[in-house]
Amino acid sequence: MKRIYLDHAATTPVDPAVVETMLPFFTENFGNPSSVYSEGRAAKKSIEAARLQVAQAINADPREIYFTGSGSEADNWAIKGIAMKNKSKGNHIITSTIEHHAVLHTCEYLEKQGFEVTYLPVDKDGLISLEDLKNAIRKETILVSIMFANNEIGTIEPIKEIGEIVKEKGIIFHTDAVQALGNIPVDVKDLNVDLLSISAHKIYGPKGIGALYIRKGVPIDNLIHGGAQERKKRAGTENTAEIIAFGKAAEMANDHLETNANHMKTLRDRLIKGIMDNIPQVRLNGHPEKRLPGNANFCFDYIEGESILLSLDIIGIAGSSGSACTSGSLDPSHVLLAIGLPAGVAHGSLRLTIGKNTTTEDIDYVVENLIQIIERLRKMSPINADCPIDDAVFEKAAHHQH
Ligand SMILES: *Cc1c(COP(=O)(O)O)cnc(C)c1O
């Protein structure tokens, strides 16, 4: 049976052109990039070409790109590396309640080490408030880390404006741009960011390779001590093939950014309209306009997201409920709780994320089938229209968060 993959926020298939570019680096071009003979020099040269491709995708200097083992590693390094290096200046960090766990759990770890963390709330659309940010800044604040675009609800934060506020105060600014890259323009110079995390497997590259952009001169602790790789900041023989792949994927993402984004946006709007027009008691989560081109996230009253996922899987559709990390557990998504949804409503969430290869037929098939699935599940549901979750409760819960 044909599969329709609508979970591009979790990961993407590696583009065949990317696979082709990386394969020779497992075989013919296997040299250690630190070796001085020609095999080594060839590998080194290819890595530097890939570094330039990644740099160009975010308008950075290649010397500001440090390859890591994942987006999570880049987030960990940015936050712990800045905290440790700058602890004599202060112990306060500002982040948001809707960050990826790679940021949230790192901040929680630092709290146990004596740092103080402010978790900024978000409004019902998932946006942080610039006023809240200004009010949270103290003289001890050394780092602000706010994600560019949310992986669950797709909301795009005002990074440029945040960057201006933070820069003016002389505080270091990190953004997790893992979901932004390849979907919306990412320009480190325009955004006033000091550090920015990205990951290859979200942009049709392989899993297990990411990068941290570190603006020249930003004081940060080294991550791995050892050899001289990555300008001595992250030692270890380079993951050559995957670095080459990341370079190619970043170049392709950049070259086709607008075409891909427009394609995804058209399909996303078709999907949202199809669902909102045909299924009663459903809400769209995330900001109506300031959202990633491929993201659609819904809550269906009276049903569990997990049941929807299983029903979709049977007919060949892959989607997600909450984030990949939370599906399988009964904890509702921290992001959906942060936008004010009661736990009962958050449990009925479905995230469908479109990719560059998704087609109109895929979307129409999903809408047609989802209408039937929701109807069937609601008939079976123990919580039904006799105990409605009305908007007054929803508004009250949203209000309570602030
Ligand atoms: C996927 C993701 C990460 C983690 O990247 P990995 O390479 O999978 O570790 C971090 N932040 C966001 C927003 C993500 O979507």
TrEMBL record:
It comes from the Bacteria. [2Fe-2S] cluster binds at C325. Keywords: 2Fe-2S, Cytoplasm, Iron, Iron-sulfur, Metal-binding, Pyridoxal phosphate, Transferase. InterPro entries: Aminotrans_V_dom, Aminotrans_V_PyrdxlP_BS, Cys_deSase_IscS, Cys_deSase_NifS_bac/arc, Cysteine_dSase, PyrdxlP-dep_Trfase, PyrdxlP-dep_Trfase_major, PyrdxlP-dep_Trfase_small. Residues 4-366 form the Aminotransferase class V domain. Its EC number is 2.8.1.7. GO terms for biological process: [2Fe-2S] cluster assembly; amino acid metabolic process. This is Cysteine desulfurase IscS. The gene is iscS1.
